[in-house]
Amino acid sequence: MTHNFGLYLTLELGNHYGSPADTWPAGGWPASTEHVIPFFTIVVNELGEDRAARWFLAAREAHNHVAAAEQARDYQFGFAAHLNTEIGDDRGPSLDRAAAWEAMKALYELVRRDTAADPEVLFNCALLATGRSSGQTNEGLAVAAAAA
After folding, report:
1. Cα 114 to Cα 26, 34, 49, 81, 126, distances in angstroms
2. pLDDT tens digits for 112-138?
């Protein structure tokens, strides 16, 4: 279990959106951030930092497929279908993976309903937080997040 991931995710969100103290009460953070942090934490607690980081990368790619289809007004398979493709064989029938899967779908739905939120930013922050949480500076994760 990763007890500090929620804190590290909050710090990464602060790096992106600014300090909540500096933006309150007008608010510089999307409203959904408060609601999705527990779902991101479920993913990390169930999968561990390394696997969760791979899922966050996969989720970002799945979101990009959804956004591209919306922009092109093309047939939409939806986030879950694209996420399943991106995750590949890593999604099995175990309880931990089922919990992580449902958490990913739920957090994406919350973020999509918040017009001020950018799913890609949230997945990038979660990706960076997994490196912090494991106590490692993972340059590969930082590069992956920066590439977005």
Report:
1. 16, 12, 26, 21, 18
2. 999 999 999 999 999 999 988 555 555
The three-class DSSP label of residue 29 is coil
Name which of 99, 103, 96, 136 is nearest 122 in CA terms.
103
DSSP 94: S
Here the tokens at position 68 are 């591209």
Contact 46, 2 (CB under 8 A): no
Whose tokens are 């500096």? That residue is 22
Q: Is the pTM of this model over 0.85?
A: no
- Half-sphere exposure of residue 39, counting CA atoms within 13 Å on the CB side? 21
In whole angstroms, give the CA distance from residue 128 to residue 126: 5
Distance, in Å, from the CA atom of 50 to the CA atom of 115, rounded to the nearest integer, reads 30
Q: State the CB neighbour count (10 A cutoff) for residue 147.
A: 8
DSSP assignment string, 100-144: HHHHHHHHHHHHHH-TT--HHHHHHHHHHHHHHHTT---HHHHHH
Q: CA angle 108-114-119, nearest 5°?
A: 40
Distance between CA atoms of residues 55 and 33, nearest Å? 19
